[in-house]
Design goal:
seven-stranded mixed beta sheet, 22% strand, disordered C terminus
């Protein structure tokens, strides 16, 4: 739960900063909760499966992120949080291109980045195995491919502006992962999110310092190019 808050709070701030928090939002790889757990409005959430009952404010669509069943410029913003690392390297750019195709204003991509982040997860998985503790599925999947790098976003074309910032200190990420293996700590984190969300968000800003576990890339459409420009070509 705290792991979600660490990455979704900065994403929500980004959406507000760009004035994209009031229109229709798509989250690729939302699962049953995702951004909707922190967002007051309705969103469209797409994923290959929804193992749990989706949040009440999710319009759930079962599909692949590389073949979205939506027309161009359908959404004010598109969010993809901790998804790219689960996608094979040859499909990462097609997923990015699909997100850009269906957004009117911007797309936000958050993902673990680089060798240090991957090595951290490897050590966490190894520690769980040594203690005979079942590893969460997402951690097992992190071992399948190298983590994405920011060079994925080079060469998107003149229609797009690309910015990025770091998210979550490596050691803090490791601490959160280990604490969330405890039912007692999970209850503490849920209580903080429920009763003191603003205080928690302010506290989590402290964790956004180098060396980072995650990078958040914000891709915005240049207004001068207009919606008729194929920025993904």
């Amino acid at each position: 739960m705290l792991n979600w808050a660490v990455r979704y709070f900065p994403i929500l701030r980004t959406l507000r900063r760009h004035g994209a928090d009031t229109g229709l939002i798509l989250e690729i790889g939302s699962g049953s909760f995702g951004l909707a757990h922190f967002y007051r409005g309705y969103i469209v959430g797409c994923d290959v499966s929804f193992p749990d009952l989706p949040e009440k404010n999710i319009l759930a669509v079962r599909c692949s992120g590389t073949r979205l069943p939506f027309t161009d410029f359908t959404f004010e913003a598109v969010v993809t949080s901790d998804v790219l690392e689960h996608v094979s390297p040859d499909l990462r750019l097609p997923l990015i291109n699909e997100a850009l195709r269906v957004t009117r204003k911007l797309a936000v991509f958050a993902f673990p980045c680089g060798k240090d982040a991957h090595a951290l997860d490897e050590r966490f998985l190894d520690s769980l195995r040594r203690r005979s503790i079942p590893a969460p599925p997402w951690l097992e999947e992190h071992m399948h491919y190298p983590f994405p790098e920011q060079d994925l976003f080079r060469g998107l074309g003149e229609a797009w502006k690309v910015e990025s910032f770091g998210n979550e200190h490596l050691r803090f990420h490791d601490w959160v992962n280990r604490k969330e293996m405890s039912y007692r700590w999970c209850r503490v984190f849920r209580a903080c999110l429920r009763f003191t969300p603003r205080l928690l968000e302010a506290a989590l800003r402290w964790a956004d310092r180098a060396p980072f576990y995650r990078v958040i890339v914000v891709v915005t459409r240049h207004a001068s190019r207009g919606l008729g420009s194929n920025g993904w070509d």
